[in-house]
Amino acid sequence: MPLPDTMFCAQQIHIPPELPDILKQFTKAAIRTQPVDVLQWSAGYFSALSRGDPLPVKDRIEMPVATQKTDTGLTQGLLKVLHKQCSHKQFVELKDLEKKWKNLCLPVEKFRAILELDPCDDKMEWIKFLALGCSSLGGTLNTAMKNVCEILTADPEGGPARIPFDTFSLIYQYLASLDPEISASETETYLATLREKSESRKNGMIGLSDFYTGKTSG
């Protein structure tokens, strides 16, 4: 069927005044995030935008993660995006989390592999999934905790990456409990040393320099 022979002039076409800024912010977000599948990511972006949810956007462009044995696409920056989207709830529905995962163009196989480390049914504590995600990036337990601190800290990028000791202890104990080579006594001794450091300060925080300077597990 031929298109109607209708002429439009500039006065007949209405452009919403907010559209240019929306497209500008979208373009900047795409450049920072560098999605593998632009269409998949865009669907998640505009869906989140329409609901007023945190957007699937990285804070900055990332360099490849050298510690990964294979390129799974998962990075600290993408885990940080997921944290912004999921941390408002203690537990996250796995179906919802998988959808957010796909919107970041990450392979479903990697998502399922992470869940197999600590199997659950329909939901999971977000902080545990974050810990498993940091661990799956590769390296030692300390490397995983470095990622945790850099994701959770309120310090500016490149700073000491401090987080509350209780948060650090909770995540460290959880990841250590999944490693058969780390005994409970080792974990307790290590965390006791870090607790002394945190209690010597008024803020009770632990930073990267604290757990890299002493004898550490992993």
TrEMBL record:
Chief localisation class: other
Localisation: Cell projection, Cilium, Flagellum
A molecular function GO annotation: identical protein binding
Stored CDD domains: DD_ROP (cd23019)
Example of a GO biological process term: sperm capacitation
Keywords: Cell projection, Cilium, Flagellum
InterPro entries, sorted: ROP_DD (IPR047844)
Gene Ontology CC terms, in alphabetical order: nucleoplasm; radial spoke; sperm flagellum
Superkingdom, taxonomy of origin: Eukaryota
Family, per entry: Belongs to the ropporin family.
Protein name: Ropporin-1-like protein
Organism name: Mesocricetus auratus
Source species taxonomy: Eukaryota, Metazoa, Chordata, Craniata, Vertebrata
Gene name of the record: Ropn1l
